Amino acid sequence: MRQTREAIHAHPCRDTFAHMLFHALGARKQANPTNTPTSTGAFKVKVEEVPLPSIEHPDDVIVKVTTAAICGSDLHMYEGRTGAEPGITFGHENMGIVQEVGAGVTLLKEGDRVVMPFNVADGRCRNCEQGKTAFCTGVNPGFAGGAYGYVAMGPYRGGQAQFIRVPYADFNALKLPPGKEHEADFILLADIFPTGWHGVTLSGFLPGETVAVFGGGPVGLMAAYSAVLRGASRGFVVDRVKERLEAAEKIGCVAINFEDGDAVEMIMKSNDGEMVDRSVDAVGYQAVVKGGSKEQPNIVLENMIKVTRACGGLGIPGTSSHFIIDWSLLTFLSGLYVPTDPGAPDEASGKGQISMSFGKLFEKVSDYAIMLEDSLTSVRACHWLLVSAMSSSTTDTSGI
Prior knowledge:
Elements (H helix, E strand, L loop, with lengths): L1 E8 L4 H15 L6 E7 L2 E6 L11 E8 L3 H7 L15 E8 L11 E4 L2 E2 L5 H4 L16 E2 L15 E4 L2 H4 L1 E2 L7 H4 L5 H11 L7 E5 L3 H12 L4 E6 L2 H9 L3 E4 L5 H8 L5 E6 L17 H9 E9 L6 E3 L3 E4 L14 H4 L7 H6 L5 H8 L6 H9 L9
Parallel strand pairs: 11-12, 11-14, 12-13, 14-15, 15-17
Antiparallel strand pairs: 1-3, 2-3, 4-5, 4-9, 5-6, 6-10, 7-8, 16-17
Helix pairs in contact: 6-7, 9-10
């Protein structure tokens, strides 16, 4: 791999990163087609010459990228807030035109216009067969899940480049109508629209319910928009950026600026004094307190617990583990929360250990009593076995 002389040392902000990336992408149009922006460390990206991707497996295709979007997860790596090593090519939100097709691909041909969801999956493992493609066990040895251009998510180079290899292409590339129309809309299918939709789904949302979305970035706005499309009776979007809050109002949600007061109190006041049915986290571990003077990684999770009614639901899309508690549904699914954070505000958070008020959470958990009552009066629950065992071990306090 030969590096070019062009090096870009960007300032730590999203606008500067976007400017850097688009400058590099524009430069490539006049340069060698193998030139690719590559991370060399925190806030540093170089345009390097890398080999053109090639067919490595009969199920691969090579796509010429026409649009690549920037995700907040890219910024975590760009800012040195993950365990990403230098040399990674960012970009898991990609679309383009199929240039080369492997011999095993049956659903795509050269010239097809496609968008690639950010997860890489083989479509064949147990998790994929159950629809849990984000946790595919066949694409990233030793880890459940793969993605383009993301730390610990496999050997798949990102698409902020001119070309990208798409493995298991029949499963991982969504064919689009030909032409150039709706390019800016279709790119949303690579990540933020499905991720926002999924966050609402994870919360257990039902039509007619109220939803609070914490974070008014692209995923947050798509989550709020998804809730509106699915029949939310009232939606709230919490942020502090004026333009984001204005966008939330345009899609029919109530904008909550946490710089103006306590977000939970403001949501409940706007919801006739009631807690919401569902809440969605679209912020993650770099959440900040009022004023933005410091980070508090658990503040959004704590506010979700406070503002969501008993037997409501929380949705947290985009993280690397999977955890469910029946508060109808509390699910942690890589992006919003990461295993390591070199820039964390405290040692525990740096190890991915974020505290949560489980006592407060469990105050709102209680859905099984009626179901278990029915089970105890049927042969399905052999309660006499348990009662017998418990009566002989009442002095043992090591378990519940």
